[in-house]
């Protein structure tokens, strides 16, 4: 299964600028460990995780 990706920036006035045109990409089956976000360490999330 492929998906389409387009990269753009939006400035504080809401104006959009395309950084990379639309391209078809194939997602990874399993993301590499370096691509995953660490667990949130804010006080609220730490309390609910316990």
Spatial extent as radius of gyration: 17 Å
- Which series of helices and strands comes N to C? EEH
Spatial gap, N to C terminus: 37 Å
Query: What structural class is derived from the secondary structure elements?
Result: mainly beta
* Strands side by side in the biggest sheet: 1-2
What's the average pLDDT? 85
How many strands, which pairing sense, and closed or not: the largest β-sheet?
2 strands, antiparallel
Q: Helical residue percent?
A: 10-25%
What's the oligomerization state?
single chain
Proportion of beta-strand residues: 35-45%
Shape: flat
Low-confidence runs: none
Kindly state the number of beta strands.
2
Number of discrete helical segments: 1
Brief summary:
Helices cover 14% and strands 36% of the residues. By secondary structure, it is mainly β.
Description:
This protein has 50 residues and is mainly beta. 14% of the residues lie in helices and 36% in strands. The protein has one helix at 43-49, and strands spanning 3-10, 16-25. A two-stranded antiparallel ribbon has the order 1-2. The radius of gyration is 17 Å and the shape is flat. The N and C termini lie far apart (37 Å).
Properties at a glance:
2 strands, flat, 1 helix, 50 residues, mainly beta, two-stranded antiparallel sheet
Strands, helices and their partners?
Elements: E1 3-10, E2 16-25, H1 43-49
